[in-house]
Amino acid sequence: MPSxxxxxxxxxxxxxxxxxxxxxxxxxxxxxxxxxxxxQILEMVAKEGLxxxxxxPWERIPLSSPVPVAVAVRxxxxxxxxxxxxxxxxxxxxxxVLPYPYCLAALPIAVAGTIYGAVYLTWxxxxxRELAPAEREKLVAACDxxxxxxxxxxxxxxxxxxxxFLPETDTAAVSxxxxxxxxxxxxxxxxxxxxxxxxxxxxxNPAAADLLGTPASGLVxxxxxxxxxWVDDPLFEDRYRAAMLSQRETSLTALRPPRTWLAFRLYPGxxxxxxxxxxxxxxxxxxxxxxDSAAPSVRLVTISHILSLASALTEAVGVEEVIELVAxxxxxxxxxxxxxxxxxxxxxxxxxxQRGYQDRHLVDRFNGTPLTARIPGTQTLATGIPSFxxxxxxxxxxxxxxxxxxxxxxxxxxxxxxxxxxxxGTCVLGYAEEHRFSPHERAVLTSLGGLIAQALERAxxxxxxxxxxxxxxxxxxxxxLPALDGLEAASRYLPITQGMDIGGDFFDLVxxxxxxxxxxxDVQGHDVTAAGLMGQVRTAVRAYTAVGQPPxxxxxxxxxxxxxLEGDLLASCIYVHLELEEQRAHIARAGHPPPLLREPDGxxxxxxxxxxxxxxxxxxxxxxxxxxxxYPGSVLALYTDGLVELPGxxxxxxxxxxxxxxxxGGGDSLETLxxxxxxxxxxxxxxxxxxxxxxxxxxx
Length: 700
What we know:
Elements lengths: L11 H14 L3 E7 L5 E8 L3 H4 L4 E3 L5 H8 L3 E3 L2 H7 L1 H6 L4 E10 L2 E11 L8 H24 L19 H12 L3 E6 L4 E4 L1 H7 L3 H4 L4 H4 L6 H13 L3 E7 L3 E10 L2 E8 L16 H18 L5 H16 L3 E8 L2 E8 L5 H4 L11 H8 L3 E3 L2 H7 L2 H4 L6 E9 L2 E10 L7 H38 L10 E8 L10 E8 L2 E9 L4 H19 L4 H14 L6 E9 L4 E7 L5 E3 L5 E3 L18 E5 L5 E5 L11 H14 L5 H8 L13 E8 L2
Antiparallel strand pairs: 1-2, 1-6, 2-3, 4-5, 5-6, 7-8, 7-11, 9-10, 10-11, 12-13, 12-16, 14-15, 15-16, 17-26, 18-19, 19-20, 20-21, 21-24, 22-23, 22-25, 25-26
Helix pairs in contact: 1-6, 12-13, 12-18, 13-18, 18-19, 19-20
């Protein structure tokens, strides 16, 4: 289900199901998500009790996001947040955007191990600090039932929510009590307005029209802050948001030009807000001042989305992640249909990424365009001046027609991304329909450009460092293993799963006068220094092997060299001297995890080897040598600690699992076995450290 639709675009029966869940547990608001076809995104398909502008930052949630509804799916259990203090502690990104008192529960919608989606619900702080057992049972039962219905619909290939299930109502009919209620409100001297959950006025009595100086016909259907520019201020919207989320009444005072002070009191409920308006008795300390008129969605950008984007961008690392966050956080808020991020590279335009273009060639064809070309993207990047075009005609008046409309959009905002006083790039927002940019909206979008620029500059520098470091590491590791008579060998190197750092793992296979020497090791650290030292250690081991030193002496010499270099890093290492004709191996170890040996009959054992200290610790360190039989068909597995030190898994358990996989795959080619041994493991498939594996099998 695509995100960015209003309530009218949601499947009707899902909306009814959500309403039923809210009613069962007397919750104030909630949202229902379905898992995307990729299985990696939760997409909101129904919501109740809050306007779309509140939920826009979370209409599409990656399963990896640190928000309750994603956590509930990942952990397959109910998540309960008892209030704003716990929200700030556990989920700071949400607390930063919605800093109001409320409770929240999130549950997965799953059956028989299949995840279909999730649901969240909120209550005002009048709710108990904990969910009652009866509430918990109702929530779990409702989600289980919904999951079964979704499963049944998927199996039958039928629409999830047929229109036939919608209740039919006659909205035109008005009962006698309703007529009398309207007459009663009309007789009151106080102004009374009714606001729906979206902040739109659904009713205004004559006194409200008189106090606000606007006919009731000019108020109904409008947002109060849109109909009256003098209340278009973040304070009013903040009080409105606080009332809707906390379900507590609140108040504020505003100046109706030129000298009339009005007091507004907001009485919230699940269906919206009742607004009482009276003349103010005195001038307040903090008032709502006059402001430029702006679209409601853009006003809410200033309050929530800038905070949400700022919080998210502090966690972004690479350029792709910055682009994804900007697209997820900003596009739904400002109503844009497409996004493109441009940068300068060697005097030419480079497209960093895009979202929303069905034909990516429409954007990619501008890669390599000279910055001197007279097109909107290059001009904005070169001058640092934003450009806004409300229609195709406006754009074509400013630029040649062949360059002015490259992407099929109907309105555009070109935002300069300026960081540290220099242009970093251009952010292009495309709108499918013509779009008039108010002065306030232009100011908001330009401010967003500065926020994006800082994150993008940091990400581009990080990516450059990452490419340099990994290029260095790739140059220092062997491109391939040499082919040796009588020996089959295979290797694997996997960088760390999380983060952009490189590692200090190294390995090598060296022919030596009809024999062979194998080495594997791990230099402490995950940076360029570690990679450089790794190259020095590997080169030293090769050199000492070439001059004929035995295994223990090779490690002793390398240890002394490492100490003489006066570096602060240490290294672990295993050195194996293979005598294939004699069917034996001589092994020396320097603080490294012991290897595994698979015997020809399939038994696997951990080799208990005597060893010496880590390289770089003790200049007098010695490294005893252990000799083991190495029969044809056996497999010697050398590895670094990243293969067995896994998040949430005990090392002994991981080592036992590795031995089991080695035992099962002993008959495969070593390439196939290496791929299996380094495949995804654990619940997340993530590794906390870089991983290296070297497999050796004598053939005869």
